[in-house]
Amino acid sequence: MGGRHSHGREEIEKWFAALFRGNLKDSQRTDTVRSIRFFSPDLAAVDAETVITGTKAADGSELPPRKGLMIVLATKQNGRWYIGTFHEAEYPAPRGGSANAPASTPTK
């Protein structure tokens, strides 16, 4: 969630492989879809809240859960959905707190 830009399957796989050998080795991610907007039967934008637990600091200690927003643009090809673009950002830490909190649940 640090703002890195990767392009293409090979570059993305290389980046994630390094992360999962390092500070995300014991992590677990949970995504909760908050909305899906279909622009056509084959194109959709997905907004989800994400929580990552088990992230390690440089000294090996476990960091508090990391919470954020994930935005995916998905396309349907030959009956299967694929991620075309994927963006995520961590929620800021609350004032006076050390762990970030999700925004309030959006209203429709």
Structural features:
108 residues; mainly beta; 4-stranded antiparallel sheet; 1 helix; globular
TL;DR of this structure?
This protein has 108 residues and is mainly beta. Helices cover 12% and strands 44% of the residues. It has a four-stranded antiparallel β-sheet with strand order 1-2-3-4, with no helix packed on it.
What do you see in this structure?
The protein is mainly beta and 108 residues long. It is built from one helix and four strands. It has one helix at 9-21, and strands spanning 28-40, 43-53, 66-77, 80-90. The protein has a four-stranded antiparallel beta sheet, with no helix packed on it. The model has no long low-confidence stretch (mean pLDDT 83).
Morphology call: globular
* DSSP helix fraction: 10-25%
Strand order within the widest sheet?
1-2-3-4
Give the helices and strands as they follow along the chain.
HEEEE
Low-confidence stretches: none
Q: How far apart are the first and last residues' alpha carbons, in Å?
A: 27 Å
Radius of gyration: 16 Å
Indicate the structural class.
Answer: mainly beta
Question: Could you describe the largest sheet, including whether it forms a barrel?
Answer: 4 strands, antiparallel
The averaged pLDDT comes out at 83
List the helices and strands and how they pair.
Blueprint: H1 9-21, E1 28-40, E2 43-53, E3 66-77, E4 80-90
Antiparallel strand pairs: 1-2, 2-3, 3-4
